[in-house]
UniProtKB/TrEMBL annotation:
Keywords: Hydrolase, Metal-binding. Pfam families: HD_3. One of its GO terms (cellular component) is cytoplasm. Gene3D superfamilies: Hypothetical protein af1432. One of its GO terms (molecular function) is metal ion binding. Homodimer. It is an enzyme of class 3 (hydrolase). Its EC number is 3.1.3.89. This is 5'-deoxynucleotidase. It comes from candidate division WOR-3 bacterium. Its cofactor is Co(2+); Mn(2+). It comes from the Bacteria. Residues 29-152 form the HD/PDEase domain. It catalyses: a 2'-deoxyribonucleoside 5'-phosphate + H2O = a 2'-deoxyribonucleoside + phosphate.
Length: 189
């Protein structure tokens, strides 16, 4: 049954859901998941257009922006779990996120429900150029935010820059990898 208010009421929980990875490493008031989604969406818009215009990529920008906006919706129901928790919970996290995403999308009209669920599945599989790109932007946002926290005096954030999983998709896009290398260089200044 279509229930827009229920959908948005759940989605708006992301505005007050803290990013737990930063909390785990001592950030007193970490960004929220909604703030993260904004960062991913902005990065996707800027870098997607940049790569399309100046590096002859042919990314579907509409799909990218939709994917960036919806990629964390499941966390509205289950919260944000940091990498250390995920290592213990394994596939349970993926299954819970998928179930939560599906439950939320059930409140939308048929065609829209299918569209956002398909975008979510594509993002999770990480195989299409658009999914690879958005997954890389997801991690670029994480690394920029860690860099900003370090600049404001927080320490012990090296794990974000040393964690191999944070670079899996970034390394597939040379221009984005180069950008991340510039962030790493600035950390050393």
């Amino acid at each position: 049954m279509v229930d827009f208010l229920d959908f948005f009421e759940n989605a708006y929980r992301l505005k007050r859901t803290p990013r737990s990875g930063f909390w785990y490493y001592g950030i007193k008031e970490p960004e929220t998941v909604a703030e993260h989604i904004f960062g991913v969406s902005l990065l996707a818009y800027i870098f997607g257009n940049y790569l399309n215009r100046y590096h002859d990529l042919n990314l579907d920008m509409e799909k990218i922006l939709k994917m960036a906006i919806i990629h964390e919706l499941g966390e509205a129901l289950i919260g944000d779990l940091h990498l250390e928790s995920r290592q213990f919970l394994g596939k349970c996290v993926e299954e819970a996120e998928k179930k939560a995403f599906k439950e939320m999308s059930e409140k939308l009209p048929e065609g829209l429900k299918d569209e956002i669920y398909n975008l979510y599945e594509e993002f999770e599989e990480g195989k299409t150029p658009e999914a690879i790109f958005v997954r890389s932007m997801d991690k670029v946002d994480l690394l920029i935010q860690a860099f900003i926290y370090e600049k404001t005096g927080y320490k012990n954030l090296q794990n974000f820059f040393g964690e191999r999983k944070n670079f899996e998709y970034i390394e597939k896009i040379p221009e984005i990898k180069e950008f991340i290398e510039s962030i790493k260089a600035r950390r050393r200044e």
